[in-house]
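Lecture notes, unit on protein representations.

Consider one protein chain, 231 amino acids long.
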Amino acid sequence: LLRPLDILRAMSTLKPALPRDQSELGRNRDQKGDKSYYYAHNDGWEVPENAKVRAGPGLVTGGAPVKLGSDGTPLGGYTFGKAETGDGVQEEVVSELRRRVEELERELVQVRSGLKPISQFSFSDEGAKCKVYVEIGQEVLERKLEVEGGLMTLEAAVVVLFSGRSCTLRVSVPSADGLASDRRAVTFVGASDIIPEKCSYKVDRSKGRISLSFVKQDEKKRWTEVKTQAL
């Protein structure tokens, strides 16, 4: 008479696990390294020091087994990773909300003052420099009006301020009476500090473009993005 345990053993189709260097997983990782399909199975994986580990209902963060209560929640409460605490999460959220409020306040000031944002631009990282090409429009930077007995040329005034890691650009378009009828502005923020006294700009009125040249303090720092801020 076979015992239940003997029956289970006889029915089992599982084979002993192969040594890692003989399995498909091991061979694939040895051949392709960090490009392996099984890279996530890497031994000795650790949470980076600066990682933000969030814990809470429905979130799996790994680590040692945790004893649960009758309601399914950890008996000792949810714990946070070494890189973040509950207070850290709250401070991060508050900081992000404050930043967003400041952006909205600047946009509100623009609307009330008639200041238009500048949004069309492109940039090119060139090693020691990063160039930003701002598309303003030919009719904005320079336009001509036919007046009685002559032709009037109206050129927009351009003000550029380089500071820290940013550049503030202001464009004022005059009307026929000489007063500013259209004002536009934007602040470009780079990925690292610049040398303001070496930075420069160029106004190409025929193409309707303003070129800004940021000279970096760290020539090896590559700029992968240039952000904008409303004034």
